[in-house]
Amino acid sequence: MLSSFILVVSLLLAFGALAGFALVVHSIKREDRRRSLTLSPQSALSSLSRRMLGLNVDHTACVIHPEQACPTCAKIDDTLTV
């Protein structure tokens, strides 16, 4: 009885880890296809994947060299200029 309980729990944990890995891989491929890494996350899954991977974009170079700014910073600069 105890061995079957341990087997079921271990299978559930393994399936959970595999499902989490599959979700992160799917989110990474979707972000890569959109080329949207400098933009804000489009979904909760993208946000979770970025947080899990420690992925963030440093925009200090956009401030230092505004002529070479990323699309997000360039769009913000265009809306701020009058």
**How many helices does DSSP assign?**
4
Structural class: mainly alpha
Question: Percentage of helical residues?
Answer: over 70%
Largest sheet: none
The low-pLDDT segments are: none
Cα distance spanning the termini: 74 Å
| Beta strand % | under 5%
Assembly form of the protein: single chain
Question: Taking all residues together, what is the mean pLDDT?
Answer: 80
State the total count of DSSP E strands: 0
- Radius of gyration, Cα only, in angstroms? 20 Å
The helix/strand order is HHHH
Q: Looking at the structure, what is the overall shape?
A: rod-shaped
Concise summary:
The protein is mainly α and 82 residues long. It has helices at residues 2-34, 44-53, 60-64, 71-80.
Please give a handful of descriptors for the protein shown.
about 80 residues, single chain, mainly alpha
Describe the protein:
This protein has 82 residues and is mostly helical. Helices cover 71% and strands 0% of the residues. It is built from 4 helices and no strands. Helix 1 (2-34) packs across helix 2 (44-53). The longest helix has 33 residues, at 2-34. The N and C termini lie far apart (74 Å).
